[in-house]
Each structure stands twice: as structure tokens, then as C-alpha cells.
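agent> fetching stored inputs for the coenzyme A docking request
agent> found them:
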Amino acid sequence: MTAPPAAAIEVRRLTYADLPEVVAIERRAFTSAWSLAMFVLELSKPSGICLAAVVERELAGYLICSRYDTVWHIMNVAVDPELRRRGIATALLSHVLERVHQDAQLTLEVRRSNAGAITLYESFGFRSAGVRRRYYQDNGEDAIVMWRTPATLRGTLDDVPGT
Ligand SMILES: CC(C)(COP(=O)(O)OP(=O)(O)OC[C@H]1O[C@@H](n2cnc3c(N)ncnc32)[C@H](O)[C@@H]1OP(=O)(O)O)[C@@H](O)C(=O)NCCC(=O)NCCS
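agent> prediction call returned; pasting C-alpha cells
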């Protein structure tokens, strides 16, 4: 299949009707996949940002972001394996940043071995600010805790909680 151009990526709100395709991508993307019930719970939260990326009318990726008090937590982002490195996750993250306040604090956990995702997050100003030892139960892997705040955008961790 010829890769579609980046211009063909549409980002819109994720809906319950998308969830069968979301779960199919999720199972291909992660060794410990979220269940359907976990996606339903996140979609039910009125303060969250849940986005779908659509390419040629097919769900190509999704992003789940929850709000906890003043902090936005990127809980899940995944792209169809056949459609990676075409800017789909970039489009999803860009939309999140358009939706939150410019001084917003965002955080996420990522597997230490997931160098591609870490590079992606760094390109948006996220910085590693800590480690949760053996966070992932399937293989005991550490999580890198990343933050994107006004301070990380200036090159420091001054306003990152817990540092
Ligand atoms: C991580 C993931 C969401 C990236 O999605 P994507 O749509 O392919 O990402 P993009 O095309 O927007 O990538 C943007 C940039 O991020 C970096 N990047 C993304 N994936 C990468 C990889 N596998 N290796 C190295 N760099 C990578 C590159 O700098 C890339 O720019 P380039 O393609 O011009 O070099 C996708 O690989 C995925 O679904 N992985 C499985 C699930 C996962 O690990 N999610 C993150 C959990 S924290």
C-alpha cells in the first residue's frame, strides 16, 4: 500500500463507535493492551481529551489524555503499525497542545526501551524527570516519567512536581 501524504490526516474527537477499531490497533501496538472497558471509562470522563486520527476514512491512531486537577496526563497513544512514521502521532499531540492552556503541565510514562516514542515526546518539549522502577507488570520494565511544562520548554525542570 502506498503511504498516504501527511496532509490526509484528519484529527477529530474519539467516539464510542470508534472503539472496536481502537481495540484492534491497541492489541497490535502493546504487549499489555488496554481493555475495551478502560477506553469506555476514559471516554466517559467529561474533562478528558480523546482524539482519533483518520486516514482515508479509516481509524489510523488515537490519543487519550486525562485531566487531574491542573495536570494533563497522556494516558495512551498508538498508531496502526502499517501507518507509522507518517506524522500521525505528531498530528494527535499537536491537537492536544492546541486544546490546553499555553502554560499547561503535561506528563506521561513511557517504557525505558521505547526510544521512538521518547524521541517523539522530546520533539514536543517533554523532558525525562524521573523513573518509576518496574512500573510495567508484564516484564518489570522501568517507566520514564516525562513532563512538558513552561520550565521544560525553557530547558529546566524548575516547575516539575516532585523534582
Ligand atoms: C510511538 C508511536 C505512537 C509513534 O507514532 P507515529 O505516528 O509513527 O509517529 P510520527 O510519525 O508522528 O513520528 C514523529 C517523530 O517521532 C520519532 N519517532 C517516532 N517513531 C519512531 C521510531 N519507531 N523510531 C525512532 N524515532 C521515532 C521520529 O523523530 C519521528 O520523526 P521522523 O519520522 O521524521 O523521523 C507509534 O510508534 C506506536 O503506536 N507505537 C506503539 C505504541 C506506543 O509505544 N505508544 C507510546 C506509548 S508511551
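agent> quick read of the result: Residues 29-30, 77-79, 84-90, 110, 114, 116-117, 119-120, 123 surround coenzyme A (CB under 6 Å).
agent> awaiting further instructions
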